[in-house]
Write a structure and sequence with these properties.
By secondary structure, this protein is α/β, with parallel strands linked by helices. The protein is built from 13 helices and 15 strands. It has a domain of 268 residues: TIM Barrel (Alpha-Beta Barrel), CATH 3.20.20.
Length: 404
């Protein structure tokens, strides 16, 4: 048995425990959490750490395959500039550089306490890394294409990629998913729904990352409309639906789908109300540093809290971020919303992400779970809060982290 103590232990399932003692078996499974105020079974010399202990972090939205693009795109110029710049620089890197950057990113995320990831993939460049990484992955094989003529071929490529990931002995969780509300034809949405419904697989979709998305659906104008025509010469122009983005595509999605809406930078109350009323199980992923990098904006997080939304946290990619760290995302949230309690943010970064991705043994310090243990150091103990120079490290890996 191991006994770990810290200034605070954040179990997620209950209140933080001051000077608590986390009890684990030799395989890393939680057996108990002792409160020194009430417990009579306190060991004489537990392993003592300065800071906060919490379960391993869940990065619910990452583009690991874009790790090569760090520093390659100027910040603050908008999503349209970002998309076009990413296309322009992709040919400047070799496959060896891509593979190296992926391995380096995995290693960095693991050391900082990320134990599971919902990862977006457009190819197979992350396949080898996922077979050997101690991190657990669900791979979302992303599909997009506005021309219905190509819908079947696009789906088959996505299913082929998903099959390759599913065949892994480790990290064999994979599903096809739409890229964004605006980047698929109705036919491609329909084909994804047929596949998703038959297998009850989760979906992850980029949602309301900037104002162009709203304009596109409301009246068919803006830079997304222009980009759609540029990528698909001869396609019939989209005239808009007169509705908000999610309402415009909801009929093409399964109401019972397990759905993750990613970014939500400009989501308003009417968008949230519609989503909560329409879908059975919906989570909302925040990637604040990417939002600030691309658009210089951050979502109205208080609105999501008011609506009791299930919030998760993601890092997006190194094309839109300078680090893949869940703690850095929480620190970014704290800069704009200092009133949000740390324990609430930790629940977003652990339990909620694990719940959406289906990693049942991760995310909390519940007895019998094996979530791994993260130490957050250089913290504000008196106020149970982060500092802007706090850091995190994985102290104990999850019980499932061994590689066969």
């Amino acid at each position: 048995m191991r006994y770990l103590s810290a200034d605070y232990i954040l179990p997620v399932t209950g209140s933080p425990v001051r000077n608590g003692i986390l009890v684990m078996d030799d395989e890393g499974r939680i057996t108990d959490l002792l409160d020194p105020v009430f417990s009579m079974n306190i060991p004489d010399q537990p392993e003592r750490y300065n800071g906060f202990l919490c379960p391993g972090f869940i990065n619910s939205h990452c583009h690991l395959e874009l790790s090569w693009a760090r520093g390659g795109i100027a910040p603050g110029l908008g999503l349209n500039h970002f998309v076009r710049s990413l296309q322009a620089i992709r040919s400047t890197v070799s496959e060896d550089e891509v593979s190296y950057s992926i391995r380096k990113s995995c290693d960095s995320m693991w050391k900082k306490g990320i134990v599971a990831i919902g990862d977006i993939s457009n190819g197979l460049s992350t396949l080898a890394c996922k077979e050997i990484s101690p991190i657990l992955f669900h791979t979302f094989c992303e599909l997009f294409g506005s021309d219905p003529i190509h819908a079947e071929a696009i789906l088959q490529r996505g299913l082929s990629n998903a099959a390759a990931f599913s065949a892994l002995k480790r990290n064999g969780r994979a599903s096809v998913t739409p890229h964004a509300t605006y980047s698929l034809s109705e036919e491609l949405f329909r084909l994804i729904r047929i596949n998703q419904t038959s297998q009850d697989l989760p979906l992850s979709i980029h949602h309301q990352e900037n104002e162009d998305e709203n304009s596109f659906f409301l009246n068919g104008t803006g830079r997304i409309a222009e980009r759609r025509l540029a990528f698909n010469p001869g396609i019939v122009p989209f005239s808009g639906t007169g509705k908000r983005p999610l309402e415009s595509i909801a009929g093409w999605l399964d109401q019972n789908a397990k759905l993750l809406l990613v970014h939500n930078t400009l989501s308003q109350e009417e968008d949230i109300n519609f989503a909560l009323d329409y879908f059975r199980e919906i989570h909302w992923c925040l990637c604040p540093k990417a939002n600030l990098f691309i658009e210089g904006l951050i979502p109205d997080i208080d609105l999501f809290r008011k609506k009791d939304c299930k919030i998760t946290i993601g890092t997006d990619s190194l094309a839109s971020n300078d680090t893949l760290s869940i703690l850095e995302e929480m620190k970014a949230i704290t800069r704009f919303y200092p009133e949000i309690p740390l324990c609430e943010m930790v629940s977003w970064a652990t339990r909620n992400g694990a719940e959406f991705l289906g990693f049942e043994n991760l995310g909390t310090f519940s007895p019998g779970s094996s979530p791994g243990v993260v130490l957050i150091e250089n913290v504000d103990i008196d106020n149970l809060a982060l500092r802007q120079d706090s850091w995190s490290r994985l102290l104990i890996p999850p019980a499932n982290a061994s590689i066969s």
